[in-house]
């Protein structure tokens, strides 16, 4: 019997198993020079657990409503391996951390400089034009006569072209400037959208400098969804008042450099993770577009759990700060 169980545990299935992760205290992850602000409560980021499936997990997912089965191709995409996926998620987390720093410092009116250095080639897609000339780590700085500072610049410029047109790239490889000419192809050929491209995964390369300096260490946690909570913790360390007000404050949401909060995945699992940590407040991205569902799912999940946790939808970092300030006022008058 034990041998059969081990075999079932080792046999893979073409699914990832997604379930509630953890609510992790943010303050130990954020290091800032010359901060003395005392935090009486706690800011928590929330995570989703995702692992490659096996037969045991596949069977359990059919009886456990908190375990979801997601086809591997929906997670990895075409031709991507799990190691690269994790690497990409860690890079996305790094970008999110930089956004969080910028958003917090701008909210506080403190100096923060963002220098865009170009577009790093994070991955070259096989069979696409870039495979002929580019390598991972190359930094694209110009296309034709257009300077390229960030990934959005590259995508916008190429979107105005057609497959079959040529573009000239100026890029940096190991400190040396190089040029190449590529013929655009439809990204549909590599499993992407039907639009012109060169066939790379682009990542904005930038440097963020602040005073005081900030660093964030999140180990192997990946993805962009901790942005809002990182910003709140940074802002708390920058300020002279404790935004937590002694409360347990959990949440999730992507963050832009200007403080806009965006939708994330797995919200129902993050609500349960926060409930297990007895959070008082949960910040969730507000539903804005017709396809958005974070706010609706968060409220429905909290109701299903019978949770007393306040589910607070926010559009921006500033809205989250205003809500926390209101809690301070309410405590003083109660």
Tell me briefly what this model is.
This protein has 334 residues and is α+β, with helices and mostly antiparallel strands. Helices cover 32% and strands 32% of the residues.
Describe the structure.
With 334 residues, the protein is α+β, with helices and mostly antiparallel strands. It has two domains: 13-111 and 211-333, Ribosomal Protein S5, domain 2, CATH 3.30.230; 114-207, Roll (Pdz3 Domain). Helix content is 32%, strand content 32%. The protein has nine helices and 18 strands. The chain has helices spanning 2-10, 55-61, 72-76, 82-108, 151-159, 227-238, 267-276, 294-305, 317-333; strands at 12-25, 30-32, 42-54, 68-71, 112-124, 139-143, 146-147, 166-173, 176-183, 185-186, 196-197, 200-210, 214-216, 248-251, 254-255, 261-262, 281-285, 310-314. The strands form five sheets. A six-stranded mixed beta sheet has the order 4-1-3-14-17-18, sandwiched between helices. Strand 8 and strand 9 (176-183) form a beta hairpin. Helix 4 (82-108) runs parallel beside helix 6 and helix 7 (267-276) crosses helix 8 (294-305). It is globular and about 65 Å long. The N and C termini lie far apart (61 Å). 36% of the residues are buried. The model has no long low-confidence stretch (mean pLDDT 90).
Topology:
Blueprint: H1 2-10, E1 12-25, E2 30-32, E3 42-54, H2 55-61, E4 68-71, H3 72-76, H4 82-108, E5 112-124, E6 139-143, E7 146-147, H5 151-159, E8 166-173, E9 176-183, E10 185-186, E11 196-197, E12 200-210, E13 214-216, H6 227-238, E14 248-251, E15 254-255, E16 261-262, H7 267-276, E17 281-285, H8 294-305, E18 310-314, H9 317-333
Parallel strand pairs: 3-14, 14-17, 17-18
Antiparallel strand pairs: 1-3, 1-4, 2-13, 5-6, 5-12, 6-7, 6-8, 8-9, 10-11, 15-16
